[in-house]
Specification:
The chain is globular, with a radius of gyration of 19 Å. It has one domain. α6 packs across α8. The protein is mainly α. The protein is built from 12 helices and 2 strands; from the N terminus they run ααααββαααααααα. A hairpin with a 2-residue loop joins β1 and β2. Strands 1-2 form a two-stranded antiparallel ribbon.
C-alpha cells in the first residue's frame, strides 16, 4: 500500500507540472483558436532564466523565479504581437505552424545558452524527502501540487471575478460579439499569451527542480498535449484533471510495469511509462473525440 501511495504522490507532483503547462495551452486556444506549439520553448526558457538568475547571478531563488516569470511573460507578449497579431483572420492551421517555427527558433537559442550539461535551477528543496506517516516522498512533489492548486484557484477567480477575465471569456465564446460590445479582442489575445508565458515559466522551474534543466527538458511540455486532449481542448478544468491523470498513469506504470518480480508486462520494455499518457490519449479519442470535458461541436447541415 505504501508503494502505491508513493507512486500516486509522484504522479500528482509530476502531473501538476503537466497541468500548469496544459492550462497555458488551453488559455491561448480558448482565446485565439490557435494551438500554441511555442509553449515548450517558453517552458525551457523560463527554467533557464531561473537557473541563470538564481545559480549564476546568485539571486534569491524566489526572486529569480519572479524575474524569470516576468521576462517569459514579456517574451510571450512579443511573440503574440510580432507573429500572431498579423495572422488575425488567417486559418488556425497557419498560425499553429508559425508557433512551431517560433518554438524551434526560441529553443535553439535557449539550448545554446544551456549547453550540453544539466543546469540546476537552485530550488531550495532539491531531492530532500519527507515522511507522511509511513509514506516517503520528495518535497518537490508536494511543492508542485501545492503551487498548481494555488495558481489554478487564482486563475479561476481571475476569470470569474475580474473584468479582464470576463472579457476573455466573452472573447473565447464569440470574437465578433465581443468586438460589438467594445471589447479590445487584440488585447485579450495578448493577455492570453501573457498567462501562457507565466505558466510555462513555472512549469520550467518544476521540470528543473531536483535534477536540473537541459536541452531535452522540452519533452515534458509535449506531455501536456495528451492532457489537453484527454480533458478537452477548451476546458481549463479538463486540462488540470488531464495533466494529473497523465502524471498518475505514468507513475503507476513506471512502478508496476517491467520485468522485475512483482511487476507485469515486461515485454513492453522498461521505458513504456514515458508513452503511457499517449496511449491513454488514443483510447480516449476513440471513445470521446472531443475529450472528457470538452465542448462537443455539432454541425447542422
Amino acid at each position: 500500500m505504501e508503494k502505491f501511495a508513493e507512486a500516486m504522490l509522484v504522479g500528482l507532483g509530476n502531473g501538476s507540472t503537466i497541468s500548469l503547462i496544459a492550462v497555458g495551452f488551453v488559455v491561448v486556444f480558448k482565446s485565439t483558436g490557435v494551438l500554441n506549439f511555442a509553449q515548450p520553448a517558453l517552458m525551457v526558457g523560463g527554467g533557464y532564466l531561473v537557473s541563470a538568475f538564481a545559480v549564476t547571478q546568485g539571486l534569491n531563488f524566489f526572486v529569480a523565479v519572479a524575474v524569470a516569470v516576468g521576462v517569459t511573460v514579456l517574451v510571450g507578449a512579443i511573440i503574440e504581437r510580432l507573429t500572431m497579431r498579423p495572422l488575425v483572420g488567417e486559418s488556425a492551421f497557419t498560425a499553429a505552424v508559425v508557433t512551431v517555427g517560433v518554438d524551434i527558433v526560441l529553443r535553439t537559442a535557449v539550448n545554446r545558452r544551456i549547453g550540453p550539461f544539466l543546469r540546476p535551477v537552485g530550488d531550495p528543496w532539491g531531492l530532500r524527502t519527507v515522511s507522511i506517516g509511513s509514506i516517503d516522498t520528495q518535497q518537490r512533489y508536494l511543492v508542485m501540487l501545492a503551487v498548481m492548486v494555488v495558481v489554478v484557484a487564482a486563475l479561476y477567480l481571475f476569470f470569474q471575478r475580474s473584468r479582464i477575465g470576463l472579457a476573455m471569456r466573452t472573447t473565447a465564446l464569440d470574437q465578433e460579439v465581443s468586438l460589438a460590445q467594445g471589447i479590445n479582442v487584440g488585447r485579450m489575445f495578448t493577455v492570453a499569451w501573457l498567462i501562457a508565458g507565466a505558466l510555462a515559466a513555472l512549469g520550467g522551474v518544476f521540470v528543473g527542480s531536483g535534477s536540473g534543466i537541459d536541452q531535452q527538458s522540452h519533452v515534458v511540455a509535449f506531455k501536456a498535449l495528451p492532457a489537453i486532449i484527454l480533458g478537452g481542448m477548451d476546458s481549463i478544468g479538463g486540462a488540470v484533471i488531464g495533466g494529473l491523470a497523465i502524471g498518475v498513469v505514468e507513475a503507476l506504470v513506471a512502478t508496476y510495469q517491467g520485468d522485475q518480480p512483482g511487476q507485469f508486462a515486461g515485454f513492453l520494455g522498461t521505458s513504456f511509462s514515458s508513452i503511457a499518457g499517449f496511449v491513454v490519449m488514443l483510447v480516449v479519442l476513440m471513445v470521446r473525440p472531443y475529450g472528457l470535458f470538452g465542448t462537443r461541436e455539432v454541425e447542422r447541415v
